[in-house]
């Protein structure tokens, strides 16, 4: 039922669904179907409508334009009343010919809004603000190429411990991601890709384990399992790279940033999209719930430390 809009669903359940009942007034904005790939026009219109029809939950922002003047946008979803809740970032389509990554971000956006009041999703949205950007590289998406308008690889353009800023951020689309990442200093992030199946964590540029290796391993393993995938490992052991998003976000801001690989083919046949996006949603929600659990554990630990200190001062 995920793809049926709420109003129509209720009518269908009531057995009242006739053409006459479905007037223009019914909200159909967040009813995405995954039987075909979405055009950038469809994605843009849908994101705008989603925000317009759920103003208490979602907002739409244009982050900037690509080299070829295509829109780069995100939606922010939250029900937190905090002025500045901890933020999580989910992006897709660093590589334009990995279109199941685009659709995975759309599917998760759809699911979070459709199920915002559910016991599964509500605690996530009450605690975090979630930024979802389906198209990092819209020029590549339009041309069905891995790289940007000049054939450069967007996911090798970030700075890292081994790569200074002066040798990085040459691609306008990645400058936009950097601006958002440096402003929000995200608690956690998923960069969706495709071309294999699994979950990868930093570091990409060295075999040395990151400080948070145990946390990365646990969250990645659970997320991969939720998608029916076996592979969850530090990215370097998949293959070494330099200048990736996850290394930058983790090194610069301590973001628990991981790569989700959605499907063995970058752009699988449309008949498989529904299945692939459904499992992507399972992986994404599992990741978000694990980040929430971690957050709550840290909060409890902080309270215990505080109360222990309090007891100490009285004795
Ligand atoms: Zn990729």
What does this structure look like?
With 315 residues, the chain is an alpha/beta fold. It contains ten helices and eight strands. The relative contact order is 0.14. The chain binds zinc ion (ZN). Residues 94-95, 98, 155, 193, 195 line the site of zinc ion. The site of zinc ion has 6 residues, from loops.
What do we call the CATH homologous superfamily of the largest domain?
Zn peptidases
Overall pLDDT metric: 90
The end-to-end span amounts to 59 Å
* CATH C-level of the largest domain: Alpha Beta
CATH architecture of the largest domain: 3-Layer(aba) Sandwich
Q: Describe the sheet with the most strands.
A: 8 strands, mixed
Main attributes?
single chain, 315 residues, alpha/beta, Aminopeptidase, 2 domains, eight-stranded mixed sheet, 8 strands, globular, disordered N terminus, binds zinc ion
Write the layout of secondary structure elements.
Layout: H1 6-13, H2 40-53, E1 58-65, E2 71-77, E3 87-92, H3 99-114, H4 122-127, E4 129-133, H5 138-143, H6 172-184, E5 188-193, E6 196-201, H7 213-226, E7 232-234, H8 235-238, H9 245-253, E8 256-263, H10 273-314
Parallel strand pairs: 3-4, 3-5, 5-8, 6-7
Antiparallel strand pairs: 1-2, 2-4, 6-8
The structure holds zinc ion.
């Amino acid at each position: 039922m995920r793809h049926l809009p709420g109003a129509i669903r209720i009518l269908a359940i009531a057995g009242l669904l006739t053409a006459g009942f479905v007037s223009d007034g019914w909200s159909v904005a967040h009813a995405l179907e995954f039987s075909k790939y979405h055009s950038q026009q469809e994605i843009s219109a849908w994101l705008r409508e989603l925000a317009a029809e759920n103003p208490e939950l979602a907002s739409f922002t244009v982050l900037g334009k690509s080299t070829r003047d295509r829109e780069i946008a995100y939606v922010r979803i939250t029900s937190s009343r905090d002025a500045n809740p901890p933020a999580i970032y989910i992006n897709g389509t660093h590589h334009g010919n990995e279109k199941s990554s685009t659709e995975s971000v759309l599917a998760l956006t759809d699911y979070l809004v459709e199920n915002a009041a559910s016991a599964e999703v509500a605690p996530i949205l009450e605690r975090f603000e979630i930024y979802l950007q389906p198209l990092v590289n819209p020029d590549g998406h339009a041309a069905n190429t891995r790289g940007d308008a000049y054939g450069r690889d967007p996911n090798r353009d970030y700075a890292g411990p081994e790569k200074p800023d002066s040798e990085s951020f040459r691609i306008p689309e990645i400058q936009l991601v950097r601006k958002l990442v440096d402003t929000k200093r995200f608690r956690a992030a998923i960069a969706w890709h495709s071309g294999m199946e699994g979950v990868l964590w930093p570091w990409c540029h060295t075999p040395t384990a990151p400080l948070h290796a145990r946390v990365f391993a646990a969250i990645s393993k659970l997320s991969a399992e939720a998608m029916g995938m076996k592979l969850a490992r530090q990215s370097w052991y998949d293959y070494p790279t330099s200048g990736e998003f996850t290394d930058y976000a983790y090194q610069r801001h301590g973001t628990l940033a991981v790569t989700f690989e959605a499907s063995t083919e970058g752009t699988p046949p449309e008949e498989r999209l529904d299945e692939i996006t459904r499992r992507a949603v399972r992986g994404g929600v599992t990741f978000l719930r694990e980040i929430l659990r971690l957050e709550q554990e840290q909060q409890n630990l902080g309270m215990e430390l505080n109360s222990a200190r309090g007891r100490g001062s009285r004795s």
